[in-house]
Amino acid sequence: MKAIRYIETPTCARIIAGIFLVSLNGCSDAWLEPRPLSFYTPENTYVDAEGFDAALAACEKIMFTEYNGDGMPALTEMVLSDIAVEGTTDKAGPQMDIDKSLLPDANLNSPDFTRVGWYWTNGYKAIQYANIVISRIDQATFSSAAERDRILGQAYFHRAYWYYKLVHQFGDIPFLDEEVADPKTDYYSTDRWSILSRLKKDLDWAYEQVPDAVHRGRVSKSACGTLLMKIDISLGFFDDAIRIGEQIVAAHPLMTSRFTANRTKPGTNLMHDLHSVEAKLDVSNTEGLMYIVSYPNAQGSARSQLCRQLLPRIVGVNTPDGFAGIVFTSNVEPQYEINSVYGRGIGRARSTNYYQYTVWTDKEKEDMRGVHNRDSWKSPADMWYNDPALKSRGNSYYGQHLIKNPAMSVEDSIRAWYQWPHFKTFVPDPLSADWNWGGETPMYIYRSAEVYLLMGEAYYWKGANGQAAEMLNVVRRRAGAVPYTAADISIGAIVDERARELYFEENRHIELTRIAYTFAKTGKTCEYFGRSYSLNTISGPGGTGANIKQEGYNFYYDWVTAKSNFYNKGVAHRWAEYKISVHHMLWPVPAAAINANTKGIINQNIGYPGAEHNVPPLQMPTE
After folding, report:
1. Fold annotation for 1-24+36-73+115-209+589-623
2. pTM of the entire structure?
3. What pLDDT score was predicted for residue 489?
4. Which residues on neighbouring strands pair with residue 291, listed in sequence order?
5. CA end-to-end span of the chain, whole Å?
6. Residues in CB range of 59: below 8 A, 6 or more apart
7. At what angle do helices 448-462 and 238-251 cross, to 10 degrees?
8. What pLDDT is stored for residue 14 in this prediction?
9. For residue 260, what are the contacts with CB-CB under 8 A and spacing of at least 6?
10. How many Cα neighbours within 13 Å face the side chain of 399?
C-alpha cells in the first residue's frame, strides 16, 4: 500500500505567509533549480484517492492544532467572547486591553499575545490544501465515481469550514477558489455574503455525495450538513437548516444512557461519559458527527493541554497564615493528590461570572452540565493544602481545602480563583506521571446536540418560539434542566444554551458574530436589548477614535459587554485594564498580508488603521 504523506511543495507552503508571499526570483542557472528529494511530488502524489486523502489529512491536522497545545488558538475565540477573558496577569501583552493589543501591525500569532493571526494564516493554508484536491480532482484515477465524489465533497467541506470561520472573524476577505501554483500579489477582498452563498452551493452538493459511514476524524455527510446548517442560517435559509437538521438527528440520536467504563466510576454522570476520552473512541457513540482524532496511548502525539490552559493557577494560593501550601510533586499523600485528580492549570482562559454563575439559573438546579452539580464542576475550594512541609511543621491548614484569602491581589484573584467544568477539561495522561498538561484526547467538532440547538435557533428566526423551545428542550431534558416554554424563548435563551452545552467545542466569538450579522441582515428587533441593527453601521462609525463603547451598533458588542464582568467594567491590574470596542466583532487583517499584496487591495476592517484605503469588495460568481 502506498504511504500517505503530505508534501510541502511550492503549491502549498511557499504561497502563504501572511496570506501571500512576494516571489523572490534570483539566478536562473539550471543547477540552482530545486529537485525533488523523493518521488512524492505533486505529479505522482495527487493521482488517486490515497494522494488526495493525504491533502485532506493536512486539513485535518490544522483542525487538530486549533484545539491542542500550549496557548491553542481556540482560546482566542473564547477570550474575545462572553464566557472567558485572558487570565495571564503576570505580564503585559496578552489580550486584555483589546483597544491596544488588537491592531493590524501587532504580534497577532503568539501564545503570549493573541492567536488572531493564526486563523488568518492557517485558514488559508487549509483552503489551499482543499483547493489542491478541487483543482486536480479530474486529473486522477478513482475506483468509482462515488469515490471521486466523496473526496471532492470532503474537500468542499474543508474549504467551507475555514471560509465560514474567516468571514465571521475578518469579514470581506480574498476568495481563492482554485489551487494557487505561484506566489500572487494581486488579491482583492470579496464580499462575505457572496462567499457564503458560494459555500452553500458547494455544501448542498457535498451533503448529497459524502457518506455518513467514514473513518473517525474524516468528514462525514452529517458534518457537511451541520456546517451547511450554519451557513443556511447565516443566509436566512431557515427552513433548509431545519430540514437538514431533522435528517441528521434522525440518523444520530443523542446519547441518553450511560456508556463506556466511566459509568461505574463514583462521582460521575452522563456528561462525564459523553466527554471522556473513551466516549470519543467508542463506535457506539451515535452523537458525535465529526472529531479531531488523537490516540491517548500513542507515544509522541501532541498533548491536549486542556487542564493547563483552562484551569486556574492555584500554585500561588497560600495558606491564610501566609505559607506556600500547594505542591504538584509525587511525594504528596495520595488522599491530597491534585495532578491526577484535577490537573494543573495556568489560567489562560479565565471564566467570566456569566459562565460560572448567572447562566446557571433555578431552571438548571438539576442540570448535570452546571455549576450546581459538584461532580461536574470544580473550584480551587475542592483542592487541598498538600505541601508536606506544612505537615512537618504542624501547620493546621495541612489537608484542609483551599481558602480564598480576602487580601488576594487582583492578579491572583483573576488567575487563581474561579470554577471550571471538570467533566470537559479533565484529560488523563497514561503515558506520563506528570498529568499537569492534559493528555491526548479526541475532540468533538460537531455533535447532534448542537444540531438541535441550531434547529432551535432557525425556528427562533422564523418567529416559531414554541418549536424553538421543543428543539432546545431535547438537549435540556437530557442534561436534567427544566424544559423551556415558548414564553422563555429569546436570543438570550439560545445563546445561553449554547454556552451550557458547547464550552470549548464551539468557536464562541464566531457564533456570536454570526448572530450579530443575522440581526443586522434581517432587521429583526433584538428583544433582549430592545433594539435593531444595521449592516451599514455594524462595525461602528470607524475613523478617528474608533475605540468606541457605544451600544447599539452590533449584537456581539452589546452581548459581550452586558454579560462579561470584565470588559469595560473598570477591572484592572498592574499590567492592563480589560477593554473592548464595537469594531472588535471583526478582527484586524494582519498588516503583513495587506502590505505584501502590492498589486491588489485587501480591505482592512472598519475601526482599524488602514480602513481608509478600502475599496468596494468583489462579488463572488456562483460558479
Report:
1. 1.25.40
2. 0.93
3. 98
4. 444
5. 37
6. 126, 129, 130, 158, 161
7. 150
8. 36
9. 273, 276, 278, 279, 282
10. 8
Alpha helix (H) ranges present in 364-447? 388-392, 410-416, 422-425
**Which amino acid is located at 508 in the chain?**
R
Domain with CATH 1.25.40.890 in the chain: 1-24+36-73+115-209+589-623
Place of cell 471538570: 422
Buried/exposed code over 300-327 (b: 16+ C-beta within 10 A; e: otherwise): ebebbbbbbbbbbbbbbbbbbeeeebbb
DSSP 441-455: --EEEEEHHHHHHHH
381-395 as b/e: b if 16+ CB within 10 A? eebbbbbeebeeeeb
Which helix (DSSP H) or strand (DSSP E) does residue 461 occupy? helix 448-462
3-state secondary structure of 209: helix
> What integer is the mean pLDDT of 345-368?
97
Largest Cα separation within the chain, whole Å, is 79
Asked if 238 and 232 count as a contact pair (C-beta separation under 8 A), the reply is yes
* Element holding 202 (H helix, E strand): helix 192-209
> Model confidence at 259, in pLDDT bands (50, 70, 90)?
very high
Residue 15 pLDDT exceeds 60: no
Closest CA to 83 of 408, 453, 567: 567
3-state SS, residue 251:
helix
With beta carbons less than 8 A apart as the criterion, state whether 581 and 557 touch: yes
Phi-psi category of 178—alpha, beta or left, where left has phi over 0 and alpha has psi -120 to 50?
A: beta
Cell of 572: 484592572
How far apart (Å, rounded) are the C-alpha atoms in residues 519 and 558? 12
Cell numbers representing residue 43 in the block = 505529479
Distance CA 28, CA 9 (A): 19
With both helix axes pointing from N to C terminus, report the angle between 221-235 and 192-209 in degrees, rounded to the nearest 10: 150
